[in-house]
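Cross-check.
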Amino acid sequence: MMVIKLASPSANSKPTKAAKAVAQSPARGSKVFYKMTLPLIKEGEAFYLEYVIFQKTVEAVNGFHSLYRTARKGARGGPATHAQQDLSRAMLVFACAGLDVLVKQLVKTKLARLIEADKGVGERFKQFVRKGLERNEKEVLSTVALALIDQNPREVLLRDYIDSMTDDSLQSVEELHRVSSASGLEVTKIFSNDRRNRLRDAFIVRNQIIHEMDIMVETGASRTTGHRTRRQRQSPLMEKHTTEILDLGQELLLAFKGRYAALKIEVEKAHKKA
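Predicted model, tokenized:
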């Protein structure tokens, strides 16, 4: 799990121009793998924390890519070593982890206000509560009891709803689509059929890396010359998968931000001081 901690700014500290421009554009003459196209969100503005989560994800991915390119300098053809391919693998794994953290943060901090402002989103919340009443009697009584003794019974049900979307990993097209739909986003536009297929391919590779370390176990397999015990990961394809994941992260952040703007939802300033 990625943990992003932001130090509270001191009263006299002011962000430098360089700090504001981080991840917005590469240094002159340098080449970066992935360039953020998100409009800059300054400290103190709404969606700042989500912006930083994505920014740090991109920085990590670009760091792994830079290490890979450095390791491959001078190579005269042939496949990359697995030590080198591990850097490409790390790019995709970190991109997926960053997407998971980003979407969960958006749901935890922004969904409650969307439920209040968007009738469609509010109706999905009601459907969740109704469905919950169909559970076994013991579970229903437990939930009702907790709600009744709480100062704000609705908050108990709301926390249960949000937990249902953030407790598990959001590392599949289906889960991301479900959460996006519950938040009132334009899922038909965001998750086109072609994109869903591309994302599925990326998550399949991610899962093979995370759960199997790309190790191929074949009983009775011949150990002839050229036999490999790990899947080969070519850099161009890994870059394609990683870009697909990062592009989705950007689009989902912009979609949430767009819904808040369209519904004219007021949000508290990040790091607001008394």
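The first helix runs from residue 17 to 21. Residues 8-29, 269-274 have pLDDT under 50 and may be disordered. Passed to J.P. for a second look.
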